[in-house]
Amino acid sequence: MYFRYDEKETEYLKSKCKKLAFVIDKVGHIERQVDKDLFSAVVHHIVGQQISTKAQETIWKRIEDGLGVVNADTILKAGIKKLQSFGITFKKAEYITDFANKIKNGEFDLEAIWQKTDEEVIKELSALKGIGVWTAEMLLLFCMERKNVFSYDDLAIQRGIRMVYHHKKITKPLFEKYRKRFSPYCSVASLYFWAVAGGLIEGMKDYSPQKK
């Protein structure tokens, strides 16, 4: 399953900015996978912290193969030592187990969170061990499919903005100017800035001063 958006969102963004309109037309429709299971998405994001995408994929496959289904019951049954055997650190295994315990004892309500605002979701998710604001924002976008996520802490989005608009530096006030411009479809704008940052449009460069 991919993040759902269509011409309604892209036409709105194009009407707000000619430079982003060029990017949208050049790149076309972007397919980014989403995981609608919030529990496994949280675990997946904890697993992937500070490791490469390839390493994350390898470890995640071991977890899925080893547990069958990734949920609170299978996590708690496995225990920290078995989780570590899949290739994750003790600290990550501890975070994941703590999350599973919170689900089991009702401290964290997986169903209720879907009804909350973006700000409330970020507050609740980032209160979990091992989940910061950036991770909470990524869960909002790539699990809950919220349409207005624009993460200042995401370095690739900042890079994409620098490349499209020829900025040397993205300050918080400047970032907020773009958030206001692209709202309520910042998530879709984010997809295109990631694409630009990844080098999808030939000739676009990063205008950030190079460190010597």
Described by strand count, sense and barrel closure, the largest sheet is:
none
Average pLDDT number: 96
SSE string, helices as H and strands as E? HHHHHHHHHHH
Radius of gyration from CA coordinates? 19 Å
Our measurement of the CA-to-CA distance between the termini, rounded to an integer number of angstroms, reads 43 Å
- The number of E-state strands comes to 0
Q: Summarize the amount of helix as a percent range.
A: 55-70%
Counting H and I runs of at least 4 residues, what is the number of helices?
A: 11
Q: What sort of overall outline do the alpha carbons produce when their principal axes are compared?
A: elongated
Q: From the helix content, strand content and strand pairing, which structural class follows?
A: mainly alpha
Strand content: under 5%
Low-confidence stretches: none
Explain what this protein looks like in three dimensions.
The chain has helices at residues 7-16, 18-27, 38-48, 53-67, 72-85, 90-104, 118-125, 133-142, 155-165, 172-182, 186-197. The relative contact order is 0.14. The protein has 11 helices and no strands. By secondary structure, the protein is an all-alpha fold.
Task: Please give a quick description of this structure.
With about 210 residues, the protein is an all-alpha fold.
